[in-house]
Design a protein that fits this description.
- The protein contains 12 helices and 18 strands.
- By secondary structure, it is an alpha+beta fold.
- The longest helix is centred in the C-terminal third of the chain and has 35 residues.
- Strands 15-13-14-12-16-17-18 form a 7-stranded mixed β-sheet, sandwiched between helices. Strands 1-11-2-3-5-6 form a 6-stranded antiparallel β-sheet.
- Helix 7 runs parallel beside helix 8.
Length: about 450
Amino acid sequence: MSTLNSKLTRSQQKTICSQLGTVRLKLLYKASIHGFTGAAFHQQCDNNYPTVSVGYNSSGYVFGGYTRQAFNQSGQFVNDDQAFLFSLSGENIHKYPVTSAPYAVKMISNSGPHFGEALVLVHGSKQVVYSNPGNYYNFTAAEMHGNDLNLTECEVYQVEQTTELEKPWRTVIWETEKKKDLMESIMTYKPTISSVAQARVLLIGPVGAGKSSFFNSINSVFRGHVTSQAISGCSTTSLTTQFRTYSLKAGRQGKPLPIILCDTMGLEESKGAGLDIDDISNILKGHLPDCYQFNPSAALHSDAHGYRRSPTLKDKIHCVVYVIDACKISIMSTKLEEKLDAIRRKVNVMGIPQLVLLTKVDEACPLVGEDVTNIYRSGYIKDIMQEVSARLGVPLSCIVPVKNYSEELELDINCDILLLSAVIQMFRFVDNYFDEINDRLSNIETKE
């Protein structure tokens, strides 16, 4: 069976959808593939609704009808006061509403879509149109189909509700050149304080949200292929049991990038499990050594091996990133929310900028699952981000959606652009942190 490709252009689909609400069209039946017969039509379309049926003729006319009723083979008329016929001219649609709702659609087994006694596509299992204006629909035959009753194609689409927005609410350039620019910006970034060579970003989030996967994904972009260095996977308890600092490289033998991603145990709602809030204070202040083994039941003590007693600015955390699973925000427990809130307030007191990374957006929204470039066209993802904003108490501008690499073997340029854009946002927040420090230093010098 050949792949079904829509004959309707994108703009024609938008024109039809504009009459039906926030919807999209899913192709069910294509006569040139399935057959110009009533049996083929009913096999593909029965019990699916609402539908848009479209006929095409050799004169270039595009026309058809809409019904909310499911097709069947009962031989009966069915009532539909919302049914209408239409013809498309460029991006304009001419609608012909049903004039007698009880006779809107007829269910005939040996024909295709059958609108009243006015219009039939694939009539009598033949590649022809039956047209009889005035029978429950008023239209002009010449205007609708140019009196050309030979079908070159017939398609039936199911009308599906969607959250796709008319315009993206954030602007992203999805081009190879943009990816190159983002990578170059990351490789050439320099913190505004000369004593610091690399920005230190702490990733915090519930178990399984994708902290380690984010590092692996960024690493993959710069390696040029999907790779996995940090331990990641599916588990009910944290797979990360140590405090790890990951330095990224520009290619396999490249120089280190100016960012260190610090990975921690996952947050868990119960006490004595997952990352301890007191450990977070030690991480933020730069006391924790790399590879420190977490003990969920006891925080790090100053006598511990490797404890940094006098951390410098380069050892401290310059930006905190909360990693949140888009699929689980609505079921986040109150205890976990309280834990995140306690951490957020602690970070606020220390004046460290905070960002939210929203992961698994492709799993949360089918529209994004089909195409990552729909990320800012998805009303559903925007709603999730607004919920994150409300529950975590961060502005919408501080929330960045990404898709980590999990099952793919090859890189995808659009995923790369989202991931790299997230790193750029982290650098902007790090700059804010250093600007604050520079301002404080300037004020001290002024007073002296």
